[in-house]
Amino acid sequence: MYEPFRVLIVDDEEDLLSTLVERLEFRGIETVGVQTGTQALAEIAKQEFDIVVQDVKLKGEDGVEVMKRIKQVRPNLPVILLTGHMSQETSREGLQAGAIDYVLKPINLEDLIVKMQEAIATHRRSES
Amino acid sequence: MNTGAQDREEHLRADLKFFGRIMANVSHEFNNVITIIGELSGLLQDLAGLAERGRPLPVEKLEQVTAKINLHTVRGKELISHMNRFSHGVDEEVHSLDLRESIDNLSVLTHRLLERREATLAFTAPESKVPITCDPFLVQRALFCSWELAMDADAPSPALELVIRPEHNSVDILVSSVSGGEGITSREEWRELSVMAGRLGGRVTVDRIDDGFTIRISLPAHLDAGT
To answer: Which among B67, B47, B68 has a CA at the least distance from the CA of B57?
Structure first.
């Protein structure tokens, strides 16, 4: 079992998003999934999350710009970027813009969970 | 003034850049397909794990997940098939093809690039074949260049229409939008497109129609006819 946390997943691939949400929920992790940056900002305005996991390439949107907008609203909210091998350059740009880490696709779910836990723990330590 | 050798090198570099761009886009898309299939099979493992701990197997859910796996397997297979066709476009400098198929192939391979720009491309293919003898790779590069040019000229949410008009000895490819188009011929992409049309033995023009524009690429039906 994991220490409880809430995650917001942002990915425009519908089947990937719904499957990730379901698999994280099976592991007792409260998860909300959205497909666009606008929906992500709306969710963040509505409710609290411990972490955001976001694809760097979103339909009609620059993923790094979306992350910057999230950071403007919640500067301390940790963001992990999801990326293909081809987008590592973008991910490095994302790290410079404030992402805490990035995870390569195809995703290893257990690795992603460990990274989320580490990021949340680091964030909580810095807050206390 | 460039020498012939400099021109050839410049063309080669631009061709290679386009080839790399399409390959990078397709490999990104393919990586997504693999990721989805991986997560769906992970979900099946999760369900099996729950069943081992006494929870009944949800048959309907299993059927849904396997149907999605099949769907994305087909998506991956189609991508590979289109990518393969595109890659073989560089095998011969002049080849006879059906222009409708080239457009269809390019549309599939660049679908995501257009989607990212929130662009739509409506193409109604003629019922009969549109035969053309040309450089299959270069014609696709020219097509995509015209789409990009049109997208830039009609930002932020371009709605493009593509029509091909076969004539006796030539083919006109028309890319239109009902809005935008200001300064289109002063763009670097316009120069690139003009060079490509020239290499294909044709030419490119633009017509301003009401508030929109039409890019017209006129190509000889047989490369020899225009040179």
So the answer is: B47
